[in-house]
Design goal:
Domain Glycoside hydrolase family 2 catalytic: 192-293
CATH superfamily: Glycosidases
Organism: Petrimonas mucosa
Shape: globular
Number of helices: 13
Number of domains: 1
Pfam family, one: Glyco_hydro_2_C
GO molecular function: hydrolase activity, hydrolyzing O-glycosyl compounds
Signal peptide: 1-23
Radius of gyration: 22 Å
CATH class: Alpha Beta
Strand order of the largest sheet: 5-4-3-2-1-8-7-6
């Protein structure tokens, strides 16, 4: 009798496990991965936008994404003041980096702070492009108090996401999927968000094609959620052929970076025009000592109807007034700022630049 009962329980258990597995398989099969937008849909979307112009934004009081988004250091007063500077020169959009660790330690609080940021930005007539993952600068990170800036060192505290952690602990991919889908589901129909930049400069920091699996996954996750906003990842290095090809083929609208001269930038635009009929948005440009300036590049972007997001709004803890490869360990101010437009009191680095920006954005009228 006991043996019969044991066998019955075993069969029942196997049936339950089988049923669960079947359900999981059915759920997996039911997930729809939408198609990449075609050129017609992409251009119809772009025609509904104003000319997008703005900066890559982090408040001057934050050294990195965690300091911007963690509860203890989230700084709405500075955000409000500095987005006011952007509004005053006619900027209408900002590109802003998130970080999965801020979500992991406090999902609801993180999303509430994103909403708070979006409310502030909207009050200044500014839309937002959020960046999900990033392969630039420091490879590791910790929650809590962030380090202070190293004098004269460009972006000394900026964080990759997920950085080296994904190679040390591949199982974290499950958590990253939950993060991406939670954020895109929560804000996927939010009209204050103009675009999702899924992965900044994949393959940077020597990763190369090691970044391809995550790049592919984040696009798949994004298309499974299917937010109303377009999905993209910016082409930034033609040397990474496989990554660049994937970005071009899988982005709903085409985003790119260029820190070269006006001639170099125009050449990149011309090349991209031969590769795609989709709209172009430049999500990083303007490095004065590399001859990428507002004066020689922003007029091109406007005339070509290309979205224009320079790096840096207000000089602060990121130290992006210093060039990538020219540290100034004494912390003195460089004669020529590399990035950024304003000092933290709202004084422009260059009145000439600000006057030009206002002329191009129609704010000078």
């Amino acid at each position: 009798m006991k043996r019969v009962l044991y066998v019955a329980i075993l069969i029942f258990s196997i049936n339950i496990i089988y049923s669960c597995n079947q359900a999981n398989n059915e759920n997996t099969e039911d997930i729809t991965v939408r198609e990449v937008w075609n050129a017609q849909k992409a251009n119809e979307w772009y025609a509904q936008q104003q000319w997008l112009r703005g900066s890559n934004f982090i408040p001057s009081t934050a050294i990195n994404q965690l300091e911007m988004w963690q509860e203890d250091t989230f700084d709405p007063e500075t955000i409000d003041r500095e987005l006011g500077f952007a509004e005053s020169i006619g900027f209408n959009s900002m590109r802003v980096y998130l970080h999965h660790l801020a979500w992991q330690i406090d999902p609801d609080g993180f999303k509430n702070r994103i909403n708070d940021y979006l409310e502030i930005a909207e009050s200044h007539g500014i839309s937002t492009m959020f960046v999900i993952f990033d392969d630039c600068w420091n490879p590791t990170y910790e929650a809590g108090v962030q380090p202070g800036p190293k004098p004269g060192i460009h972006n000394s505290g900026w964080l990759r996401d997920p950085g080296d952690s994904i190679y040390i602990n591949p199982d974290m991919i499950t958590n990253l999927e939950l993060y991406v889908k939670d954020i895109l589901t929560t804000f996927g129909d939010d009209e204050r968000i103009v675009l999702w930049d899924l992965y900044n400069e994949p393959g940077n920091s020597g990763y190369g094609n090691k970044s391809m699996p995550l790049l592919e996954k984040v696009f798949t996750w994004g298309r499974e959620v299917n937010p109303s906003q377009p999905l993209s990842s910016g082409v930034w290095s033609w040397n990474l052929e496989e990554i660049s090809e994937y970005q071009l083929n899988n982005s709903d609208v085409i985003t790119y970076h260029n820190y070269g001269s006006a001639e170099n930038h125009q050449s990149m635009i011309d090349t991209l025009r031969t590769l795609t009929e989709k709209p172009l948005i430049c999500t990083e440009y303007m490095a004065r000592t590399r001859n990428s300036t507002f004066q020689n590049t922003m007029p091109i972007l406007k005339s070509e109807n290309i979205g224009a997001y320079n790096w840096g709004l207000v000089a602060g803890k990121t130290n992006t007034i210093y060039a990538w490869d020219t540290p100034m360990p004494d912390g003195s101010e460089p004669t020529v700022w590399f990035h950024d437009i304003f000092r933290n009191d709202g004084t422009p680095y260059s009145r000439e630049e600000v006057d030009l920006i206002k002329e191009l954005t129609g704010k000078s009228n």
